[in-house]
Amino acid sequence: MISAFFIFNQKGEVLISRLFRQDLKRSISDVFRIQVISNPDVRSPIITLGSTSFFHVRINNVYVVGVTKCNASAALVFEFLYRFITISRSYFSKLDEESVKNNFVLIYELLDEIIDFGFPQNSEIDTLKMYITTESIKSEMAVREDSSKITIQATGATSWRRSDVKYRKNEAFVDVIETVNLLMSKEGAVLRADVDGQILMRAYLSGTPECKFGLNDKLVLQKRGNEATKSDDAVELDDCQFHQCVRLGKFDSDRSISFIPPDGEFELMRYRSTSNINLPFRLQTHVTEPSKSRVEYTIHLRANFDPKLNANNVLLRIPTPLNTTGVQAKVGVGKAKYVPGENVIVWKIPRLQGAQECTLTAEADLAATTHRQAWSRPPIQVDFSVVMFTASGLLVRFLKVFEKSGYQSVKWVRYLSKANGSYQIRVS
Amino acid sequence: MAMAPPRKGENYELRQQLNSEYRDKRADAIKRVIANHTIGKDCSGLFPDVVKNMQTDDLEQKKLVYLYLMNYAKTQPELVILAVNTFVKDTADPNPLVRALAIRTMSVLRAEKILDYLASPLSRCLKDENPYVRKTAALCVAKVFDLKPELCVEYGFVETLRDLIGDGNPMVVANAVAALADIYEASLALPTTPPASPGRSSTPPPSSKPNPELFIIDPPTLTKLLVALNECSEWGRIAILNTLARYRAVDEKESEHICERVMPQFQHVNAAVVLGAVKVIMIHMKAVTREDLIKSLTRKMAPPLVTLISSPPEVQWVALRNINLLLQKRPDILANEMRVFFCKYNDPPYVKVEKLDIMVRLASEKNVDTLLGELKEYASEVDVDFVRKAVRAVGQVAIKIDEAAERCVGVLMDLIETRVSYVVQEAVIVIKDIFRKYPHSYEGIIPTLCSNLEELDEPEAKASLIWIIGEYAEKIENADELLGTFLESFKEESYPVQLQTLTAIVKLFLKKPDESQTIVQKVLQAATKDCDSADVRDRAYIYWRLLSSDPAAAKSVVLAVRPPISLPQTTVAPAILEELLAEVSSLASVYHKPAATFIGKGRLGAEEMQRRALEPEEENAREKALQTVVAGQQAENLLDFDADDDQPQSSSSGIDGSQSLSMLGNGGISSTTISNVAKSTNPLDELMDLFSTASMAAPATMPVAPVSTVSGIQGLQDDRSDAFAGLTGLSSPPQGLGSGVTSPVQGQSQQKAGGGGAQDDLLGLF
């Protein structure tokens, strides 16, 4: 159980404070300010002082904090804090000091609904938006009329869906989004390559549709054993997780994904795959230190996918030593710039075609230092997004929609592979 | 309050606005009041003006007024009554949202007067036709119980809650379960007999304790819970899983059933649900004997645990700490998954350190090469703390996997090449442990180590290197020279370094008596005359006497063979591990400590002991835990005792018995023993007697830490590592010297073994 919830700014001023239980006083917020915010040595996200435990998540320029006095579930508290952040984002796009100050009434209202006496309650964004409204979505009369419906939905077995949804055109959009994680050693050996996938769905379907969803997966919860029955185009998923609308029992028994979708956008499932990952980019690096005052870079980038496809917003972050004074960089494609604040050369390529290759050569000048510690050479990071490409090879086989009225529906599928700080190549 | 309020200032303005005839103005004013309250300004003076705005059709405004009331009702108990009417009216509003809001708010106002009006609306709301109102009311019972338990018992709210478990709506079930669990914990903290109330002698005083049977889950309820588990919201699932964890299955079949039904929850997105399911399964799996089921359970547990590693860092950390625990119980579940624990450059430090620990746990012959490559990479990062841990991990791998030891030493030598001060120091410390495990295997690297002598400035690293020099004194040509440099700065060194210097030089002398006569004289002089640590001084005296009276005995004491060290499987005692595994995902499992140790006071803490006493099963666990603690202490006692070997020695070398006796007294031997000893005519015999009986009899009867003459003072400080350092030097090398390899528990048992050996030697002497 969570006893109190706070939002602090960076100076430690309280922006939001809400106590749920009697066992704490408001002044407990001072303890957090003194012990955590003004203490640079704090390295753990949970601090227990006396018998009070503070859980904090730092986001933009605010701290979101849950406080408890019992042996609470740590995973629950953090999940709740992150859920709060997601909800806030969907209400006012960004969670920072300014938006918190501008929306404090709304935040109190939301808190009132999503947590009661320290127990998290309904946190489905779609349902919340039905009766907690902002200036932009003012529909108070409507709310009063259908409040009994709202409450049924907020608590019902399909709390995520209204029963009276109607669309003229029934459509469903499926987005398969894969985040590629790569860790490549200096020698070019793949230390770790896996994919965290997400299947997002936007369902604009009337009535209470029953959906069945199929992938080209071969779920291998038992990795060894049936190695022999491997077919070529099947993708091995190591694990998957589903939105609460998916019948887990059914999945457990016959591996079929069936559900009644929420209306609008939601995350249908997440999955993880570790075998046969197609790495969209190959990098050859050559970094030398010919003298104490200079580092030379040659970075060769190759797009390793079908020439018909394109990668967008490719961004390489190439670290330089801390004592770099200036960098001269030459690139064939895109733009390269030295960012002194972060000690990196940023190489931006807005658009890169499959099978295309390009090279960066750069020289960094170093200031003389007395400090003789070898430069630790952080890894190069590649960010990108490639449309219509899945690193795992996953494909959507089918999406079937059944509804009483028997309407026809149109389905769309998109694929995207991307990396955002997770694609790292160590420098030799 | 009786004073007329001031006619200016912000509060005055707000008051004007709150009483304005325009609705917008009033609504605005309420918002400002809440804003002021949030930043800590006292707004209690506006109470009556705010309450006036309670009667409104605007739901948002109503919510704000309610929020204000929640915060200030306690400060204005006599004015709260103004709001009661509206509250009661709202609980019967046609709009279910308003009904729920009213009952939710009313039950948290901490005012006695309100509570009296609460009973009938609450019983009505508990039976409301709308599930939203029912689920809100269910939690209200827990709130009321927190404020006034008698009320709940009197009106039978707890029974009603119990009935709600059978409700058709899963959310209501979940909240009822959560409320019941909350009330159960709170009720344990209540006194068993209600305080006597003299006024009402005719009727028995109302009990504030609900019938404990209400909290027992019977098989029919279990079925309902298992059904609701698949239907309710993620948070509801967590509440139900917690209750399932408390349930005691009647037979194996039922345990199997629970495991099978809970297993699908592994696929949930919410990490807390996944960990909750792991908890339930770890608990109920104990009763399962069917091999194939156990196998499939552990196999299915692995992928979701790995997936948790891609969560946000804080959740990841909680998961990592729990995985660390699970691996201690079932080391094989993630055997092939080491790669996912590789640290990313941008992981937060707390995550990295945890990953490192898990990687060492998962290290095996198969993956050791990749692991060493990683560790070497980490050792070149910037974060000093992390780098040190990475170096330490190399040593742990060397000790864990015999076949890889050579490669580990290679990596360590490469790291020493870097000449980065903290890397070198840490490497030296780690190599000391490797020498402990594989004596005489890697003597070739000693010259390289010695060449880094000047780089070392930390006591632990210095002490480690000195130990190595002492240990291999016969093989190092210029050992006397090297030790001589430390002797020169003897006075400035810290105590651990002094102790090691002393022991190492004595070792050198025993190995090469001809060349080091002078140096040993010098060190004994320095340690006895110029040192202000009693520990160093005492050890020097003992050595001195040993050397002067019986060099052969000195040899067998100082150069005794040490027990081998190994990497412990667990970092917590087995009984505590079991307790923690039943708490997976909780704070206790994150800290690897039982909850009672950090919650202390509060509604659970102080009464914790009592609670345990009430529950026979938990009592058992507690007892076991206590036993391990006692066992630990005994081991420690034994250790301390082992240092007592010297007493006979010192006595025999001519110290008079009474002196050593008085020292013993200081050390804390119980008075009976002392008098026993005192009575005897021959103190030496008696000591021998005491020694042998005590070490043979159950150590439980032993007095608190019969600290030796040597480590007496340090032992009293109750600092284990100090005590270790104090006594190990006598018969064994610096085992306790911060060797990250041996955990306390393990260390103790080794010491015990070591003690036994040394003791045999000594007894042989007599």
Beta-strand segment tally of chain A:
26
**Class of secondary structure makeup of chain B:** mainly alpha
- Report the C-alpha radius of gyration of chain A, rounded: 26 Å
Helical run tally of chain A: 7
β-strand amount of chain B: under 5%
Quickly count the domains of chain A.
3
- What's the CATH superfamily of the domain at 10-189 and 207-220 in chain B, by name? Leucine-rich Repeat Variant
Which sheet architecture does the biggest sheet of chain A show?
A: 10 strands, mixed
Judging by the overall fold, what is the CATH architecture of the domain at 10-189 and 207-220 in chain B? Alpha Horseshoe
CATH superfamily of the largest domain in chain A: Mu homology domain, subdomain B
The CATH class label of the domain at 10-189 and 207-220 in chain B is Mainly Alpha
Shape of chain B: elongated
Task: Summarize the structure in words.
The complex is a heterodimer of chains A (428) and B (766). Chain A is of the alpha+beta class and 428 residues long. Helix content of chain A is 18%, strand content 43%. Chain A is built from seven helices and 26 strands. In chain A, strands 8, 9, 13, 15, 18, 20, 21, 23, 25 and 26 form a ten-stranded mixed β-sheet that branches. The radius of gyration of chain A is 26 Å and the shape is flat. Chain A starts with a strand and ends with a strand. Residues 136-145 and 220-231 of chain A have low confidence and may be disordered. Among the domains of chain B are: 10-189 and 207-220, Leucine-rich Repeat Variant; 460-559; 574-765, no CATH class. Chain B contains 42 helices and no strands. The interface between A and B is large, with 97 and 109 residues.
